[in-house]
Write a structure and sequence with these properties.
This protein has 2 helices and 6 strands, in the order H-E-H-E-E-E-E-E. The protein is an alpha+beta fold. The chain has a 6-stranded mixed β-sheet, sandwiched between helices. Strand 2 (50-57) and strand 3 (63-73) form a beta hairpin.
Amino acid sequence: MGDAARHMQDRIGATFQDCGEFDEPRHDQSCRLRRVEECMISALDACRPAHGTHEFWTEEGDPVRVDYFSYTDRGACRLMLVEDRSADPIGKTGVSEKVCRSHSWQPQPDRGSCELLSVSDCSAPER
């Protein structure tokens, strides 16, 4: 877990729902990520602090990690994604954070029978 994700985990406190992690094997064709994402949306809908992770590989074999956080900010329920691509020298590098206010389920491009969480109305977190 990177510094940004660790900071966010400290922010939501010690009592949060653990939505688990999905370490996606290369060339995986399953729909197992949905379990983590459904847990996160359930926590968000109930305005419960929660954390879940997704680790996967780029086409070139570089690891990427996404940490999902559900938390309350000034009475509003929020979903934050912290994406760490610091090990990907070709694509986007570094760590990005975004707070998203809307979500839906979309077909996964390379696995038509699977759906993935799609976020929208996202912005940088307030500091």
